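Appendix B. One record, verbatim.
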Amino acid sequence: MLQALAISKQALPACLPNPPIGCVLVSANQVVASGYTHAPGFAHAEADALANYLATTDIAAQDFPELSAYVTLEPCSFYGRTPSCALTLIEHHIKRVVVALVDPDPRNNGTGISLLTNAGIEVDIGICESQVASFLNPFLSAIEEK
């Protein structure tokens, strides 16, 4: 998760007003790809990490049941300018999603986690929560105030 946090900082300032999110994909305890949230309308961290994984492997299929995703903020559950990250992870059969913080955005706020768990994906919440919160909270507060 600390690697996802470090990667999330690469999102700034282009991702704004979206929060700077990082994602690492892990297989057999090794980081195999990473990504971060890009400018509004472009890839979120999870989609960026999956695209980077595909770009660096010989895997033709887009079904990844061996992968775990470590994400600094709960994957979004709704379609905005980009597709739902939670649904993207489900469609790719990611086996486990580790989340530092639940998204306080009322459009999400636990719904992404519910989608994942209802699809049979193992979800762990609160890993490195304090470290991620100290970085993300100013960006999340700005979203909540809108």
